[in-house]
Amino acid sequence: MIIEAIKALGVTEFACDSEPTKEAFENTYRSDSVDNPSITWEQVSAKIVELEAEYDSQEYARNRKDEYDALNQLELMSDDSIDGTTTHKDAIVAIKAKWPKDNSGPV
């Protein structure tokens, strides 16, 4: 997440030979390039918190989408058409019941 935060702060070039950490940032980051703004670890830390909050806020949408993506909807619709069943419709209704759009959470 450190690299993502640094890039989100407008840095176009940042590389580090080790695991990105506060120490690695402080030892390797240089703003002497025209493409790299002067940023501090405090700014990076704040951006990490912001990015994590944004990611966490989308968990519900990701979970809902994952359930829809797990269905082979075209095959289910085709099978239902041939067999006279409602498997596809039933699966969609179940997902909508579990993950309603009002974002109230799983049932």
Describe this protein with a few key phrases.
0% strand; mainly alpha; 2 domains; 107 residues; single chain
Question: What's the arrangement of secondary structure elements?
Answer:
Blueprint: H1 2-8, H2 22-28, H3 41-57, H4 59-70, H5 73-83, H6 87-98
Helix pairs in contact: 1-3
What do you see in this structure?
Helix 1 packs across helix 3. The chain has two domains: 56 residues, no CATH class; 40 residues, no CATH class. It has 107 residues and is an all-alpha fold. Helices cover 62% and strands 0% of the residues. The chain has six helices and no strands. The two termini are 31 Å apart.
Tell me about the largest β-sheet.
none
Number of helical regions: 6
Mean residue pLDDT: 86
- Fraction of residues in helix: 55-70%
User: Per the principal axes of the C-alpha atoms, what is the gross shape?
Assistant: elongated
What would you say about this model in short?
This protein is 62% helix and 0% strand. With 107 residues, the chain is mainly alpha-helical.
